Amino acid sequence: MSRSYGQLCGLAFALDLIGDRWSLLIVRELLVRPEGARYTDLRDGLPGIATNLLADRLRELESTGMIRREPPRPPVATQLFRLTALGESLRTAVEALAVWGGEQVPAARADAEFRSRWLIIPIEALLRDGAPGEPTVIMELVTGDEPVVVEIGAGEVRARTASGRDGDVGAPDLVLSGPPKAILGVLSGKVPWAAATRAGVRSAGDRGVLVRVGLVED
Q1: How many domains does the chain have?
Q2: pLDDT per residue over 152-195, tens digit each?
Q3: Residue by residue, what is the 3-state secondary structure of the chain?
Q4: What is the CATH number of the domain that holds 183?
Q5: Which of 70, 150, 175, 191 is a Cys-bridge partner for 139, taking CB atoms 3.0 to 4.6 Å apart?
Q6: HTH hxlR-type domain: which residues (predicted)?
């Protein structure tokens, strides 16, 4: 660690390790890319970061044991970055911060940068399968740069981008589309469904999926 608060406190020590600007967002990118991420993937997922700063942060996170580099393996011609078990253990903390921050969405700038992949963490942290005994259903969120596929079943909610899916999960039971800010507001529970529809959110398919995950009342 190049800098330290020098305090015998868990929070201070955590910030010693991951408190530098961009560090926690790099962890976010790797949490939503379990297959690993190339340097270019990380740069795309972190709009506004300077190339040299990204390289510095990756070195720092590697030196503290949060991430590891994997050598290129065909057909991938470049190295991949992945979280270590220590880095992966940050998931609960990242989810809690994402949920807390999501409650401030209504006040966010409408022109703020957005990537669909960023929905994965709040979706999995906020949504619950309200009918675990029922068959699995698929919801697709269409907003931002690519669709996000959400599988609800067996008491779990799992999300991934359409490009990151392993095999075909079939046609979605429900498609939810709209502007990113309005979609985030719905997921956070801070934007009521009626207000979301006025903001451009639309649903097509089985509305019971929304009821099942608690986004609307039956």
Answers
A1: 2
A2: 999 999 999 987 655 566 799 999 999 999 999 999 888 889 99
A3: CCCCCCCCCHHHHHHHHHCCCCHHHHHHHHHCCCCCECHHHHHHHCCCCCHHHHHHHHHHHHHCCCEEEECCCCCCCCCEEEECHHHHCCHHHHHHHHHHHHCCHHHCCCCCCCCHHHHHHHHHHHCCCCCCCCCCEEEEEECCCCCEEEEEECCEEEEEEHHHCCCCCCCCCEEEECCHHHHHHHHHCCCCHHHHHHCCCEEEECCHHHHHCCCCCC
A4: 3.30.1050.10
A5: 150
A6: 9-109
- pLDDT of 118: 95
Range of the domain at 69: 10-89
Q: Look-up: residue for tokens 């259903």?
A: 137
Burial (CB count within 10 angstroms: exposed 0-12, middle 13-18, buried 19+), residue 116: buried
Tokens encoding 178:
């709209």
User: Would 131 be classed as within a structural domain?
Assistant: yes
Indicate the residue among 74, 89, 104 that finishes a domain.
89
Report yes or no on 97 lying in a domain.
no
Are both 174 and 132 inside the same structural domain? yes
Q: One-letter amino acid identity for 101?
A: G
CA nearest 160: which of 132, 140, 177?
140
CA distance 146 to 126: 21
